[in-house]
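Write out this protein's structure.
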Amino acid sequence: MMQHTAGSVPLDNDSMYAHIFSFLGLPLSRDLQDPSVGAVVMGVPYDLGTSGRPGARSGPAAMRQASANLRWEEMRWPWGFALRERLKAIDFGDVVYANGDSDSMLQEVEQHAAMVAAAGKTLISLGGDHFATLPLLRGVAQHHGQLALIHFDAHTDTYDEGEKYNHGCMFYRAPQEGIVDPSRSIQLGIRTEYERSDHQYAVIDAHQANEQSVADSVAAIRQRVGDGPAYLTFDIDCLDPAYAPGTGTPVVGGLSSSRALQILQGIADLNIVAFDVMEVSPAYDHAQITSLAGATLALQFLYMRASRL
């Protein structure tokens, strides 16, 4: 039994209901100089770029809460090792920006992402609407250079509608800025309109992703992305609303959570230098279904990262 002095509170990070302060009960820390830390979880509570239902600013907190349900399993199925034995991670907390100021968000998120990447840590970001991926890419690219993009979504987010802040423009603007190479990038789960005649990214649409084997999807990603540094972004609406109802722009006909997790496991050995899961909007969720899916995807990526050590 843990010994403690009167007035002290023993913390048990394996509890499913006590001390739910951080993702998976990870230490709350901003010490990027600790050489033992390999991964950093960071929240981006932003939704001013949302075109549909708002509320994704509450996504990071919701995923942290839901992650308590994942603490009990020391060795996550079907991985053959315990995460804590290979990878030490911290919860960096949330990026704070001036209220209602998207320019402030862009600056703060890029700066923090660059700090984490420069420290040699792998960044896992919890959103937040998908527009926040643009400054994350900018920050990560400062250290890793031009990135391949592995993008799970119902939408391509390559729309040029002339709006400065919009969660559908990031992957139109990122290639223009030279931070993403579309010739090495791929989008999965797409099932909304886009201009196919001049689309720069490879696409595995939702019908293909659901009908072909997981192995075929994995092979297509691996062939497209290659060995260079890649950024993995997962919009939760890639999943069918049956698996993720709590999002601002749900689209019927998406992937199951099982299929998405299997595809991710199949690309674990790619050189993926950062990950985000976006668009969790808990106000539209039911029984934490979407928040739990988002938290599980983030945990899956932590295992993916640990599997390369």
